[in-house]
Amino acid sequence: MFSTIEELETSFTKAGYISDENIATVLYLALKLQKPLLIEGEAGVGKTEIAKILAKVLDTQLIRLQCYEGIDENKALYEWNYQKQLLKIQLGKENSLAEKDLFSEEYLLERPLLKALRCLKSPVLLIDEIDKVQEEFEAFLLEVLGEYQVTIPELGTVTAESIPFVILTSNNTRGLTDALKRRCLYLYLDYPSLEKELAIVQAKLPNISSQLAEQVVKAVQKIRKELKLKKKPSIAETIDWAETLLALGAECLEPELIEKTTSSFLKFQQDNKTLVSKGGGTWLLEERK
Questions:
Q1: pTM (2 d.p.)
Q2: Which of 69, 114, 118, 260 has a CA-to-CA distance to 61 between 20 and 30 Å?
Protein backbone atom coordinates (compact mmCIF):
# COMPACT_ATOMS: atom_id res chain seq x y z
CA MET A 1 0.00 0.00 0.00
CA PHE A 2 1.10 3.57 -0.57
CA SER A 3 2.11 5.79 2.32
CA THR A 4 1.63 9.07 0.40
CA ILE A 5 -0.18 10.44 -2.64
CA GLU A 6 3.17 11.28 -4.21
CA GLU A 7 4.32 7.67 -3.85
CA LEU A 8 1.20 6.45 -5.64
CA GLU A 9 1.66 8.96 -8.48
CA THR A 10 5.32 7.99 -8.87
CA SER A 11 4.44 4.28 -8.98
CA PHE A 12 1.90 4.91 -11.73
CA THR A 13 4.42 6.93 -13.75
CA LYS A 14 7.00 4.15 -13.48
CA ALA A 15 4.36 1.68 -14.68
CA GLY A 16 3.70 3.80 -17.78
CA TYR A 17 0.56 5.69 -16.72
CA ILE A 18 0.86 9.48 -16.75
CA SER A 19 -1.19 10.49 -13.74
CA ASP A 20 -1.70 13.86 -12.08
CA GLU A 21 -2.36 15.15 -8.56
CA ASN A 22 -6.15 14.94 -8.89
CA ILE A 23 -6.18 11.33 -10.12
CA ALA A 24 -3.59 10.26 -7.55
CA THR A 25 -5.43 11.95 -4.67
CA VAL A 26 -8.83 10.38 -5.41
CA LEU A 27 -7.28 6.96 -5.98
CA TYR A 28 -5.22 7.22 -2.78
CA LEU A 29 -8.36 8.04 -0.77
CA ALA A 30 -10.29 5.16 -2.34
CA LEU A 31 -7.56 2.75 -1.26
CA LYS A 32 -7.19 4.30 2.19
CA LEU A 33 -10.91 4.40 2.93
CA GLN A 34 -11.62 1.05 1.21
CA LYS A 35 -14.39 2.64 -0.84
CA PRO A 36 -15.36 1.84 -4.44
CA LEU A 37 -14.17 4.39 -6.99
CA LEU A 38 -16.47 5.42 -9.83
CA ILE A 39 -14.60 6.80 -12.85
CA GLU A 40 -16.63 8.53 -15.56
CA GLY A 41 -15.54 9.99 -18.88
CA GLU A 42 -15.53 9.49 -22.62
CA ALA A 43 -14.47 6.11 -24.02
CA GLY A 44 -10.73 5.78 -24.39
CA VAL A 45 -9.57 8.40 -21.88
CA GLY A 46 -7.84 5.87 -19.62
CA LYS A 47 -10.50 4.72 -17.13
CA THR A 48 -9.93 0.99 -17.54
CA GLU A 49 -6.17 1.52 -17.69
CA ILE A 50 -6.21 2.92 -14.13
CA ALA A 51 -7.50 -0.42 -12.82
CA LYS A 52 -4.93 -2.36 -14.84
CA ILE A 53 -2.04 -0.22 -13.61
CA LEU A 54 -3.29 -0.32 -10.02
CA ALA A 55 -3.25 -4.12 -10.09
CA LYS A 56 0.23 -4.02 -11.56
CA VAL A 57 1.74 -1.65 -8.97
CA LEU A 58 0.02 -3.47 -6.09
CA ASP A 59 1.22 -6.80 -7.52
CA THR A 60 -2.24 -8.28 -7.24
CA GLN A 61 -4.82 -9.92 -9.48
CA LEU A 62 -7.06 -7.90 -11.77
CA ILE A 63 -10.58 -9.36 -11.95
CA ARG A 64 -12.79 -7.79 -14.60
CA LEU A 65 -16.56 -7.84 -14.83
CA GLN A 66 -17.43 -6.55 -18.30
CA CYS A 67 -20.96 -5.15 -18.12
CA TYR A 68 -23.45 -5.32 -20.94
CA GLU A 69 -27.17 -4.89 -21.41
CA GLY A 70 -28.99 -7.91 -20.03
CA ILE A 71 -26.22 -9.18 -17.73
CA ASP A 72 -27.69 -11.01 -14.73
CA GLU A 73 -26.55 -12.27 -11.35
CA ASN A 74 -25.53 -15.66 -12.73
CA LYS A 75 -23.08 -14.15 -15.19
CA ALA A 76 -21.64 -11.81 -12.56
CA LEU A 77 -21.58 -13.97 -9.44
CA TYR A 78 -21.71 -17.74 -9.99
CA GLU A 79 -23.32 -20.51 -12.00
CA TRP A 80 -23.65 -24.24 -11.63
CA ASN A 81 -21.97 -26.45 -14.19
CA TYR A 82 -25.20 -27.97 -15.52
CA GLN A 83 -23.50 -30.16 -18.12
CA LYS A 84 -21.25 -31.73 -15.50
CA GLN A 85 -24.23 -32.16 -13.15
CA LEU A 86 -26.24 -33.86 -15.90
CA LEU A 87 -23.38 -36.23 -16.62
CA LYS A 88 -23.15 -37.06 -12.93
CA ILE A 89 -26.89 -37.80 -12.84
CA GLN A 90 -26.60 -40.11 -15.85
CA LEU A 91 -23.64 -41.97 -14.37
CA GLY A 92 -25.31 -42.27 -10.97
CA LYS A 93 -28.74 -43.47 -12.04
CA GLU A 94 -28.27 -46.88 -10.49
CA ASN A 95 -27.03 -45.46 -7.21
CA SER A 96 -28.73 -43.03 -4.84
CA LEU A 97 -27.59 -39.49 -5.63
CA ALA A 98 -28.23 -36.82 -3.03
CA GLU A 99 -28.90 -33.23 -4.07
CA LYS A 100 -25.94 -32.06 -2.00
CA ASP A 101 -23.70 -34.18 -4.21
CA LEU A 102 -24.73 -32.14 -7.25
CA PHE A 103 -24.51 -28.71 -5.61
CA SER A 104 -21.02 -28.81 -4.21
CA GLU A 105 -17.77 -26.98 -4.90
CA GLU A 106 -16.99 -29.48 -7.64
CA TYR A 107 -19.81 -28.08 -9.78
CA LEU A 108 -19.54 -24.38 -8.89
CA LEU A 109 -18.44 -21.98 -11.64
CA GLU A 110 -17.00 -18.78 -10.19
CA ARG A 111 -17.84 -15.58 -12.00
CA PRO A 112 -15.96 -12.29 -11.39
CA LEU A 113 -17.78 -11.12 -8.23
CA LEU A 114 -17.50 -14.42 -6.39
CA LYS A 115 -13.92 -14.86 -7.54
CA ALA A 116 -13.04 -11.43 -6.11
CA LEU A 117 -14.66 -12.27 -2.76
CA ARG A 118 -12.75 -15.55 -2.47
CA CYS A 119 -9.29 -14.20 -3.26
CA LEU A 120 -6.84 -14.55 -0.36
CA LYS A 121 -5.06 -11.33 -1.37
CA SER A 122 -7.16 -8.24 -2.12
CA PRO A 123 -7.61 -8.10 -5.90
CA VAL A 124 -8.52 -5.11 -8.03
CA LEU A 125 -12.13 -5.68 -9.07
CA LEU A 126 -12.91 -3.75 -12.25
CA ILE A 127 -16.62 -3.36 -12.99
CA ASP A 128 -16.32 -1.99 -16.49
CA GLU A 129 -18.99 0.12 -18.23
CA ILE A 130 -21.52 -0.01 -15.39
CA ASP A 131 -23.73 2.41 -17.34
CA LYS A 132 -24.72 -0.44 -19.68
CA VAL A 133 -26.65 -2.40 -17.03
CA GLN A 134 -30.18 -1.91 -15.73
CA GLU A 135 -30.93 -0.27 -12.37
CA GLU A 136 -31.94 -3.65 -10.91
CA PHE A 137 -28.43 -4.95 -11.52
CA GLU A 138 -26.99 -1.81 -9.92
CA ALA A 139 -29.03 -2.57 -6.80
CA PHE A 140 -27.70 -6.12 -6.77
CA LEU A 141 -24.12 -4.82 -6.99
CA LEU A 142 -24.73 -2.45 -4.08
CA GLU A 143 -25.88 -5.35 -1.95
CA VAL A 144 -22.82 -7.46 -2.75
CA LEU A 145 -20.31 -4.61 -2.41
CA GLY A 146 -22.00 -3.16 0.65
CA GLU A 147 -21.27 -6.20 2.82
CA TYR A 148 -18.64 -7.89 0.63
CA GLN A 149 -20.47 -11.15 1.07
CA VAL A 150 -23.00 -13.28 -0.77
CA THR A 151 -25.16 -16.23 0.13
CA ILE A 152 -25.14 -19.31 -2.06
CA PRO A 153 -28.23 -21.27 -0.93
CA GLU A 154 -26.62 -24.66 -1.38
CA LEU A 155 -23.26 -23.75 0.21
CA GLY A 156 -23.98 -20.94 2.68
CA THR A 157 -22.59 -17.42 3.04
CA VAL A 158 -19.31 -16.48 1.37
CA THR A 159 -17.60 -13.50 3.01
CA ALA A 160 -14.63 -11.74 1.43
CA GLU A 161 -11.28 -13.16 2.50
CA SER A 162 -9.76 -9.75 1.77
CA ILE A 163 -11.78 -6.70 0.71
CA PRO A 164 -11.16 -6.05 -2.99
CA PHE A 165 -10.20 -2.66 -4.41
CA VAL A 166 -13.24 -1.83 -6.52
CA ILE A 167 -13.16 0.43 -9.58
CA LEU A 168 -16.32 1.06 -11.61
CA THR A 169 -16.18 2.82 -14.98
CA SER A 170 -18.88 4.61 -16.93
CA ASN A 171 -18.94 6.18 -20.41
CA ASN A 172 -21.94 8.34 -19.44
CA THR A 173 -24.36 6.62 -21.82
CA ARG A 174 -26.98 6.88 -19.07
CA GLY A 175 -27.25 8.40 -15.62
CA LEU A 176 -26.37 6.18 -12.69
CA THR A 177 -28.52 5.95 -9.56
CA ASP A 178 -27.88 8.24 -6.60
CA ALA A 179 -27.58 5.15 -4.38
CA LEU A 180 -24.58 3.93 -6.37
CA LYS A 181 -22.91 7.32 -6.54
CA ARG A 182 -23.33 7.90 -2.78
CA ARG A 183 -21.33 4.78 -1.99
CA CYS A 184 -18.41 5.62 -4.27
CA LEU A 185 -15.69 8.19 -4.48
CA TYR A 186 -15.91 9.96 -7.83
CA LEU A 187 -13.41 10.82 -10.53
CA TYR A 188 -14.10 12.39 -13.91
CA LEU A 189 -11.49 11.89 -16.63
CA ASP A 190 -11.52 14.45 -19.42
CA TYR A 191 -9.40 14.56 -22.53
CA PRO A 192 -5.86 15.50 -21.47
CA SER A 193 -4.00 18.73 -22.11
CA LEU A 194 -1.54 18.84 -24.99
CA GLU A 195 1.40 18.47 -22.61
CA LYS A 196 -0.07 15.48 -20.81
CA GLU A 197 -1.16 13.72 -24.00
CA LEU A 198 2.30 14.22 -25.48
CA ALA A 199 3.83 12.66 -22.35
CA ILE A 200 1.41 9.70 -22.66
CA VAL A 201 2.34 9.07 -26.30
CA GLN A 202 6.06 9.24 -25.53
CA ALA A 203 5.64 6.90 -22.56
CA LYS A 204 3.72 4.33 -24.63
CA LEU A 205 5.93 4.68 -27.72
CA PRO A 206 9.47 5.45 -26.53
CA ASN A 207 10.88 5.09 -30.06
CA ILE A 208 8.80 7.91 -31.54
CA SER A 209 10.61 11.13 -32.42
CA SER A 210 9.72 14.30 -30.54
CA GLN A 211 8.70 15.97 -33.81
CA LEU A 212 6.28 13.26 -34.91
CA ALA A 213 4.79 12.83 -31.42
CA GLU A 214 4.16 16.57 -31.12
CA GLN A 215 2.63 16.80 -34.60
CA VAL A 216 0.26 13.88 -33.92
CA VAL A 217 -0.88 15.22 -30.56
CA LYS A 218 -1.38 18.76 -31.89
CA ALA A 219 -3.44 17.38 -34.79
CA VAL A 220 -5.67 15.29 -32.51
CA GLN A 221 -6.16 18.19 -30.11
CA LYS A 222 -7.16 20.41 -33.05
CA ILE A 223 -9.66 17.80 -34.29
CA ARG A 224 -11.29 17.53 -30.85
CA LYS A 225 -11.60 21.27 -30.37
CA GLU A 226 -12.56 22.48 -33.85
CA LEU A 227 -14.54 19.71 -35.55
CA LYS A 228 -18.05 18.55 -34.73
CA LEU A 229 -17.65 14.79 -34.84
CA LYS A 230 -19.83 11.83 -33.98
CA LYS A 231 -16.88 10.40 -32.04
CA LYS A 232 -13.85 12.42 -31.05
CA PRO A 233 -10.50 10.60 -31.11
CA SER A 234 -9.62 9.21 -27.69
CA ILE A 235 -6.18 8.93 -26.14
CA ALA A 236 -6.14 5.30 -27.25
CA GLU A 237 -6.70 6.40 -30.85
CA THR A 238 -3.95 9.02 -30.60
CA ILE A 239 -1.58 6.21 -29.62
CA ASP A 240 -2.94 3.97 -32.41
CA TRP A 241 -2.34 6.70 -34.98
CA ALA A 242 1.19 7.36 -33.76
CA GLU A 243 1.91 3.62 -33.81
CA THR A 244 0.52 3.36 -37.36
CA LEU A 245 2.78 6.16 -38.52
CA LEU A 246 5.79 4.49 -36.92
CA ALA A 247 4.92 1.24 -38.69
CA LEU A 248 4.95 3.15 -41.99
CA GLY A 249 8.36 4.59 -41.20
CA ALA A 250 7.10 8.17 -41.02
CA GLU A 251 9.50 10.84 -39.82
CA CYS A 252 6.93 13.62 -39.77
CA LEU A 253 3.32 14.31 -40.74
CA GLU A 254 2.39 15.26 -44.29
CA PRO A 255 -1.12 15.98 -45.67
CA GLU A 256 -1.18 12.90 -47.90
CA LEU A 257 0.05 10.65 -45.08
CA ILE A 258 -2.66 11.97 -42.74
CA GLU A 259 -5.38 11.23 -45.29
CA LYS A 260 -4.08 7.69 -45.76
CA THR A 261 -4.18 6.93 -42.05
CA THR A 262 -7.43 8.53 -40.86
CA SER A 263 -8.84 5.06 -40.12
CA SER A 264 -6.54 5.01 -37.08
CA PHE A 265 -8.32 7.89 -35.36
CA LEU A 266 -11.68 8.46 -37.10
CA LYS A 267 -14.22 5.64 -36.77
CA PHE A 268 -17.19 7.00 -38.74
CA GLN A 269 -17.38 7.85 -42.43
CA GLN A 270 -19.25 11.07 -41.70
CA ASP A 271 -16.40 12.18 -39.41
CA ASN A 272 -13.93 11.50 -42.20
CA LYS A 273 -16.07 13.61 -44.55
CA THR A 274 -16.12 16.40 -41.97
CA LEU A 275 -12.33 16.42 -41.88
CA VAL A 276 -12.11 16.41 -45.68
CA SER A 277 -14.59 19.28 -45.97
CA LYS A 278 -12.44 21.31 -43.59
CA GLY A 279 -9.36 20.80 -45.70
CA GLY A 280 -8.09 17.38 -44.65
CA GLY A 281 -4.44 16.93 -43.86
CA THR A 282 -3.52 20.38 -45.11
CA TRP A 283 -5.91 22.01 -42.62
CA LEU A 284 -4.63 19.84 -39.77
CA LEU A 285 -1.05 20.96 -40.32
CA GLU A 286 -1.90 24.67 -40.54
CA GLU A 287 -0.46 26.59 -37.64
CA ARG A 288 -2.98 28.62 -35.68
CA LYS A 289 -2.65 32.34 -36.19
A1: 0.87
A2: 69
